[in-house]
């Protein structure tokens, strides 16, 4: 009986793995209709009897401003073009910092944040962390860096019910995402990763200083030239009909 249960569990895990891989592969080209975080916010609002209107409009890569792309990289993941989903040095530094007590420091890359926002729930547990590693690996394996950043910018939370760059630009600055200035882009990046407690349109002194630091980092990283390192590429093991798609 135990062997039978074990075989069924292994089969279940196998098909769950295959299904998740196919889902991630499909989202390489299909804009995600929503995210797990959006669903979570909707459920929380329903439980608290405080209806929330989720705002999100997809903007393709070509319509997202380079300044916003670079601001988010400078603020959240300066090794984005180099790593394979995990910044080992940052993880070690965060672990050492957290062992000393006080404020908890994170070390999530943009790839990890996409995995969490798109597929997983909030909270801290070994199960969620394991799933985060799994989905991050799939995303890095099946998506180009350009796609990862595109999905991040269209899924990130920038206020209560405000998801994605387009909704954020309209909510905070009354413009469409393509028309965000360099300063506005840096302010949006400065409120991450706590956009529900900070405001890009009404920045306090800390947010303004961070935005200024982000603009300096954008310049040091090479500005929009850095984005050339994110050009799409297909894995060598892909069949020829899929390469270049």
Sheet with the most strands? none
Enter the CATH topology name. Penicillin binding protein transpeptidase fold
Poorly predicted tracts of residues: none
Fraction of helical residues: 40-55%
Structural class: mainly alpha
Q: Name the CATH superfamily classification.
A: Biosynthetic peptidoglycan transglycosylase-like
The number of strands is 0
Evaluate the radius of gyration: 19 Å
Q: How many domains, in number, for the residues?
A: 1
CATH architecture assignment: Orthogonal Bundle
- Name the shape in a single word: globular
Distance between the termini: 47 Å
Order of helices and strands: HHHHHHHHHH
Q: Approximately what portion of the residues adopt beta-strand conformation? A: under 5%
| Chain-averaged pLDDT | 90
SS element count, helices: 10
Question: How would you explain this protein's 3D organization?
Answer:
There is one protein chain. This protein is 54% helix and 0% strand. The chain is mainly α and 245 residues long. Helix 3 (66-76) crosses helix 10 (205-220) and helix 9 packs across helix 10. 31% of the residues are buried.
Summarize the structure.
The protein has 245 residues and is mainly α. The chain has ten helices and no strands. The protein has one domain (57-230): Penicillin binding protein transpeptidase fold, CATH 1.10.3810.
How is the secondary structure organized here?
Elements: H1 2-26, H2 36-47, H3 66-76, H4 88-99, H5 110-119, H6 126-142, H7 145-155, H8 165-173, H9 182-190, H10 205-220
Which characteristics define this entry?
Penicillin binding protein transpeptidase fold; 10 helices; about 240 residues; mainly alpha
């Amino acid at each position: 009986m135990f062997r039978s249960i074990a075989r069924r569990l292994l089969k279940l895990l196998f098909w769950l793995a295959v299904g998740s891989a196919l889902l991630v592969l499909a989202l390489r080209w299909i804009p995600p209709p929503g995210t797990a975080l959006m669903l979570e916010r909707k459920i929380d609002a329903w439980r608290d009897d405080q209806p929330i209107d989720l705002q999100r409009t997809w903007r393709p890569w070509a319509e997202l401003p380079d300044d916003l792309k670079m601001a988010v990289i400078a603020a959240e993941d300066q090794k984005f073009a180099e790593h394979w989903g995990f910044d080992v040095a940052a993880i070690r530094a965060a672990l050492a910092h957290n062992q000393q007590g006080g404020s908890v420091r994170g070390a999530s890359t943009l790839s990890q944040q996409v995995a969490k926002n798109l597929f997983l729930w909030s909270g801290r547990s070994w199960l969620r962390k394991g799933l985060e590693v799994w989905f991050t690996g799939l995303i890095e394996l099946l998506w180009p860096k350009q796609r990862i950043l595109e999905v991040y910018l269209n899924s990130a939370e920038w206020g209560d019910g405000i998801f994605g760059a387009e909704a954020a630009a309209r909510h905070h600055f009354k413009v469409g995402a393509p028309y965000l200035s360099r300063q506005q882009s840096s302010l949006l990046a400065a409120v991450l990763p706590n956009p529900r407690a900070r405001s890009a349109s009404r920045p306090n002194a800390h947010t303004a200083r961070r935005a200024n630091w982000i603009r300096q980092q954008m310049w040091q990283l090479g500005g929009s030239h850095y984005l050339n390192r994110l050009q799409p590429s297909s894995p060598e093991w892909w069949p020829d009909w899929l390469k270049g798609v």
